[in-house]
Design a protein that fits this description.
alpha/beta, 5-stranded mixed β-sheet, 43% helix
Length: 376
């Protein structure tokens, strides 16, 4: 049991420590938790600026429902950064439900969002608790852009592109490979999930603000089709994304294809071990702290309907810091008042897209959105 109102589970990781950094800036006491207390301590002291002024404690915990439930008791919010979430998420969600805590995470695993929606959403709603997976730059900032477009009535189709500069973290690289090997990517067509063609490969996209085309992938399908499946305004939603580095993007399909071929006949346990080893060959060290001149983000949404069009572009920087801020602001909100929607809900549905945009703008992480409308 903890006396701290917020638990950051996976606090020693790249994203986890940024969540802790922003909780400190919001003045929120927190428990930094994970499976290795020494690693958490070292990460807090070496990687979280101003940690000496934070009100926090460290806890080591086993990854099982009973242990996590006992740890979460007394907390109001759990920020989970431990992936792959399809593997490790269920125990954390079930512990939150048992302990009576709101659940936030940073996932982009579409199959995990579907599980949250279909398996746990009703129970969280009945308990008056929020279940909000995918509260992160790669998904929420694009959702903000989509919601700004949807302020114009009569638009029912979303075409979403998300790009960022820099490299994925160790955990993100492993999650990408595991997700590619174990699940399918979907888009939304007339309120029905439709699978992307696994052999589609890279798709060139026009990126606002540059002449060169960018290369994109479905990136697991992303969170957006799941969030909008139950939205009466939206019938169609497709999202693609990637990094600005074209050479890196050209290598991703080949790496994934090789990993899938090498592990296709393995047991789930052996496959996970092999994919973890492959991920370590690609990225085996923490990326450096983000540089706003290098680590840029771009979210572009075209929304359309029978007679209308809208386009929103949000330029930003430091996508992992955007994620840390979004998590901390959500925790701050939940400590002061209920979410706008309980049960399974996206960040924008739970807290409001303009409120989230205001926080990103206030901390200098995104520019003013460029929003244009055409037609009726």
């Amino acid at each position: 049991m903890t006396t701290k109102p917020v638990v950051v589970y996976g606090a020693s990781g790249y994203t986890g420590r940024l969540v802790c950094e922003y909780l400190r800036e919001f003045g929120i006491p927190f428990l930094a938790a994970g499976r290795n207390s020494a690693k958490i301590k070292a990460s807090m002291e070496s990687n979280v600026p101003g940690i000496e002024t934070a009100d926090y404690e460290i806890a080591e915990v086993s990854h099982d429902v009973a242990s996590l439930t006992e740890l979460f008791r007394g907390a109001s919010v759990v920020c989970n950064t431990v992936g792959p979430f399809s593997t490790y998420g269920p125990a954390v969600v079930e512990a939150c439900l048992a302990a009576g805590a709101h659940y936030l995470d940073t996932t982009g695993e579409q199959d995990w969002l579907m599980t949250c929606d279909e398996t746990y959403g009703a129970e969280f709603a009945a308990a008056g608790l929020l279940l909000s997976p995918g509260l992160a730059q790669m998904y929420t900032t694009g959702e903000i852009a989509a919601e700004l477009c949807l302020e114009k009535p009569g638009l029912d189709t979303l075409d979403i592109a998300v790009f960022w500069g820099g490299s994925p973290t160790i955990a993100s690289t492993r999650t990408i490979l595991v997700n590619a090997a174990t699940s399918r990517a979907h888009y939304l067509q007339q309120n029905t999930y439709v699978e992307f063609d696994p052999a589609q490969g890279l798709v060139p996209l026009v990126v606002p603000g540059q002449h060169e085309l960018a290369m994109s992938l479905p990136w697991g399908g992303t969170s957006h089709p799941v969030w909008y499946k139950r939205d009466p305004r939206v019938a169609n939603c497709k999202a693609q994304g990637g990094v600005f580095n074209a050479a890196l993007m050209h290598g991703v399909p080949q790496i994934v294809a090789q990993a899938l071929e090498a592990t296709k006949d393995m047991s789930p346990e052996a496959r996970n071990e092999a994919l973890t080893a492959t991920a370590a060959q690609i990225m085996n060290e923490m990326p450096p702290r983000e540089n706003p001149r290098l680590n840029k983000s771009l979210d572009s949404v075209h929304a359309s309907g029978p007679l209308g069009r809208a386009h929103c572009v949000i330029h930003g920087n430091q996508n992992y810091k955007q994620t840390g801020l979004l998590q901390a602001f959500a925790a701050s909100w939940l400590l002061q008042q209920p979410p706008n929607k309980s049960g399974f809900a996206s960040g924008c549905k739970a807290f409001g897209h303009r409120q989230l945009l205001g926080q990103l703008r206030a901390f200098g992480l995104v520019a003013e959105p460029v929003l244009t409308f055409q037609g009726n």
